[in-house]
């Protein structure tokens, strides 16, 4: 795995975690609830929320730079570290409770990613694929999103944070996979990239995912929201990378494949442990103990 690409992905994950924490902080301070479209519009003028937007944009730029230097199947799993970064940030900025299960989950994630980084050696892969190859997986992704949203808005805060966050994760995964051919096209054609359908589908998927992440964060469940986004995003993007872009996790020796898959599964299990620990806790209450940001 390219050290520069890996470092860029890890810093991108930290930026995404900071963005999510600042967005939730802004929602809590403004009293915006999940699904309150008018309330969310007010956040556009909130300085804390705008700081989060800046962190998100920085994360996207770093993610694009990482994908320019590495394969989707290797870069995207590193973004699971967003949930590790979110733990101390949530504790400081939004009064999120950190338990031993949270810490254990964080150690599991770090161990899984460390192993994955050692054995992960991307093989094969193309920079883009024909529209016909993309079409089927995009239709399936839309169907999954509709199903998750239908269930999510009928549930309580915990389930809504998880299911709406998962929907955002699916869309972010689609957007991240499309980012690979878009970045390559930008390198070759510059502004000609805006004539490609991949650019617009990437942008739309990312923007809708962005809105749904706001809805998920407005439930007050920061870690649950970040965990589901962080887990679903790499699952979708790695799957699309394998199906559409013909990527493989490893080349030689063959046994590395099994170790890489086990390490990735361990990483995702750690995220599930953290999400489960968070779902058992009450939502944080707004209070004066949070440090002033503006």
How would you concisely characterize the structure shown here?
The protein is mostly helical and 294 residues long.
Distance from first to last alpha carbon: 40 Å
Provide the structure class: mainly alpha
Weakly predicted, low-confidence segments: none
Strand content: under 5%
Q: Can you give the mean pLDDT?
A: 82
Biggest beta sheet attributes: 2 strands, antiparallel
Gyration radius over CA: 18 Å
Q: Count every beta strand, where a strand is a DSSP E run of 2 or more residues.
A: 2
Strand order of the largest sheet: 1-2
Shape: globular
Helix content: over 70%
Strand and helix order: HHHHHHEHHHHEH
What's the domain count? 1
Query: Count the helices. How many?
Result: 11
Account of the protein in words:
The chain has one domain. With 294 residues, it is mainly α. Strands 1-2 form a two-stranded antiparallel sheet. It contains eleven helices and two strands; from the N terminus they run H-H-H-H-H-H-E-H-H-H-H-E-H.
Question: Secondary-structure map with pairings?
Answer:
Blueprint (H helix, E strand, L loop, with lengths): L2 H28 L6 H6 L4 H23 L2 H4 L6 H13 L5 H20 L3 E2 L6 H22 L4 H33 L7 H21 L4 H22 L3 E2 L6 H25 L15
Antiparallel strand pairs: 1-2
Helix pairs in contact: 1-3, 1-5, 3-8, 5-10, 6-11, 7-8, 8-9, 8-10, 10-11
Record keyword descriptors for this entry.
294 residues; globular; two-stranded antiparallel sheet
């Amino acid at each position: 795995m390219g050290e520069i690409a890996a470092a860029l992905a890890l810093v991108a994950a930290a930026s995404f975690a900071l963005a999510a924490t600042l967005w939730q902080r802004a929602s809590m301070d403004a009293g915006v609830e999940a699904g309150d479209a008018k309330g969310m519009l007010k956040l556009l003028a909130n300085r804390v929320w705008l700081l989060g937007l800046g962190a998100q944009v920085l994360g996207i730029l770093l993610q694009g730079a990482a994908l320019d230097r590495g394969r989707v199947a290797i870069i995207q799993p590193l973004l699971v570290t967003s949930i590790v970064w979110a733990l101390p940030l949530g504790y400081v900025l939004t009064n999120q409770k950190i338990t031993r299960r949270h810490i254990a989950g964080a150690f599991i994630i770090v161990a899984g990613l460390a192993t994955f980084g050692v054995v992960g050696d991307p093989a094969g892969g193309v920079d883009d694929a024909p529209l016909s190859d993309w079409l089927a997986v995009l239709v399936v992704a839309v169907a999954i999103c509709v199903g998750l949203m239908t269930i999510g808005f009928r549930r309580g805060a915990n389930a809504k944070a998880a299911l709406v966050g998962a929907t955002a994760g699916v869309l972010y995964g689609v957007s991240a996979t499309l980012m690979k051919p878009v970045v390559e096209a930008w390198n070759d054609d510059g502004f000609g990239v805006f004539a490609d359908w991949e650019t617009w589908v990437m942008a739309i998927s990312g923007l809708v995912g962005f809105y749904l992440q706001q809805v998920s964060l407005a439930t007050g469940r920061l870690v649950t929201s970040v965990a589901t986004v962080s887990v679903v995003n790499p699952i979708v993007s790695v799957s699309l990378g394998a199906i559409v872009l013909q990527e493989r996790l490893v080349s030689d020796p063959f046994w590395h494949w099994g170790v890489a898959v086990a390490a990735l599964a361990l990483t995702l299990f750690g995220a599930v442990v953290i999400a489960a620990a968070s779902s058992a806790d009450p939502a944080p209450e707004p209070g004066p103990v949070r440090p002033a940001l503006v």
